[in-house]
Design goal:
The structure is a single chain. By secondary structure, the chain is of the alpha+beta class. It contains 4 helices and 11 strands; from the N terminus they run H-H-H-E-E-E-E-E-E-H-E-E-E-E-E. Strands 1, 2, 3, 5, 6, 7, 8, 9 and 11 form a 9-stranded antiparallel sheet that branches. A two-stranded antiparallel ribbon has the order 4-10.
Length: 191
């Protein structure tokens, strides 16, 4: 096994592009290079920004997902007393925070506290390409029953400086928010 295959995307981003410190994140927001709404100083870490779970979840209800078709969902509004997520269920959520930048590469990952509770917040879509604008869609999978609450710090986003000329901004089908705190639901992968 080569060293390349042993490093995950997060590791490669740290190697290839300088990561912003907490001070640099604040500066990027102040100068308009990065939009985070709402922004709170207490969510700025040494080299990341903490994001919170929004009030809406979607739970897949199909027994089998078919990539040619749009899946069925149950929409869950998280009550004040929280909601219990169950293993072998897959949920989509969104962050409270809206983020946008045309100058930085963003990467979302779980916080150590969510990981220690056995909660994964993204399966594969952790990269926010240059030009991404929206609330992060969270791909949530618990390994055991866990109660979560709207507004809980559930993840963190770190920011890297791209190297080289930016020739293309993300034009993807999941950019731009469809509504406050609503995750972007999957679309068929094949037609």
């Amino acid at each position: 096994i080569g060293i390349k295959s042993c490093l995950c995307l997060v590791d490669w981003l740290r190697i290839l592009a300088p990561m912003l410190t907490g001070h640099a994140i604040k500066e990027a927001v102040e100068t308009g290079r990065l939009t985070i709404t709402p922004f709170a100083d207490e969510q700025v870490g040494p080299n990341s920004y903490d994001v919170r779970l929004g009030p809406v979840l979607y739970r897949y209800t199909d027994d089998v997902l078919d990539v040619k078709n749009t899946p069925s969902f149950e929409r869950i509004i998280i009550p004040e007393e929280g909601v219990v997520l169950h293993p072998h269920e897959f949920y989509l959520g969104a962050t409270v925070e809206f983020m946008e930048t045309k100058e930085l590469v963003m990467q979302i990952t779980g916080r150590s506290s969510t990981g220690r509770y056995g909660l994964s917040i993204h399966e594969t879509a952790g990269l926010g390409d240059l030009g991404f604008a929206g609330h992060w869609t969270l791909e949530i999978r618990p390994c055991m029953p866990i109660r979560v609450y709207s507004g809980v710090k559930i993840g963190q986003v770190f920011f890297s400086e791209p190297q080289g000329e930016v020739a293309l901004l993300y034009p993807g089908k999941y950019s731009s928010s469809i509504g406050e705190f609503e995750p972007r639901l999957p679309r068929p992968m094949m037609r």
